Amino acid sequence: MIARKFRMCVTLSSLLLASLTARADLVVLQYHHISDATPPSTSTSASLFQAQLDLISELGIDVVDLHDATTNLLSDNPPAQQNIALTFDDAYESVYSVAADMLQERDLPYTIFVDTKAVGNHGYMTWEQLQELANREGVSIANHSAGHGHMARKPGEPQSHWEKRITRSLDSAQAALQKQLGTDLPLFAYPYGEFDEALEAEISERGWFGFGQQSGAIGPLSGKTRLPRYPMANAYGQLNGLKDKLTSKAFPIDTNTLPDGIMDTNPPVLTLPLAEGMKPARLTCFASGMGRIDFDVSGDQISVQAPKPFNSRRFRYNCTHPAEDGSFYWLSQQWLDLSQPED
Ligand SMILES: [Zn+2]
Q1: What domains can you pick out in the chain, each with its CATH number?
Q2: What pTM, to 2 d.p., does this model score?
Q3: Distance from the CA of 44 to the center of ligand 1, in angstroms?
Q4: What tens digit of pLDDT does each residue of 8-17 get?
């Protein structure tokens, strides 16, 4: 037992020491529709998608399988090279009709997160189309719930009701993927990117990885049930600034130590430890809809709080700090105000 504890400490401290030296992380991009005809807030135009793939190729960053890359990165021996993984939420029809051929031409792997209840509905892929893609090299299909509900426990929702609701949704989606496609991957994308600690515990118990919609890269210290992805809809995926995202590195802190994001005070306070070598003067923080915001420094900690309350269900604090090689350490803390209406 002592020996095991000692080994764990050594592993952790070597990770911490490595944090500001040579770093290569995993950047996961999150898409919905690839189309010019679908709602702009969740769509990436075909031409922008093409240009994004071109940039990835110009930068020489490998596009890799999400499950393998996440597993490798969070192992004791993370890879030395920056990698990118592509994900598509909800299994919209345009992924089949527009994106799939572009990706196949370039031989790129990707993952589709499926709301199994929506399969076959207008605008969504059918099981036959999903099967066809699943048969292609490098395409994986994974769980995005059955029914796309808001899965954090609702205010006033009895614990037993919540547990039943969540378990049913996770189990029935996983069973449908198994039955229809013969696939059983330990990957889950939270609907709307919403989660709380109890839902993370459920995902963790199953041994699954949980992916959110807060931005940032995945690093060796990232929490397995709150893995970030960069939203790539038109508003966020434009080419100016894209290189900074594609080459970004995870903020070198254990993100399990951060809040789960369920907001208690408005505006919320985020306290962050600054890794050795990070300088407050080089740190920049932003809040959704408010632009750049100030933060307080106390010793090797900073605390970030927006200057005024938020009035939306989900919002974020994003902080970046330059790394030595011209890239950025990137952290996004999502907040979820459960008193605001569901979308
Ligand atoms: Zn979704």
Answers
A1: 2-249 (3.20.20.370), 269-336 (2.60.40)
A2: 0.93
A3: 15
A4: 443 444 444 4
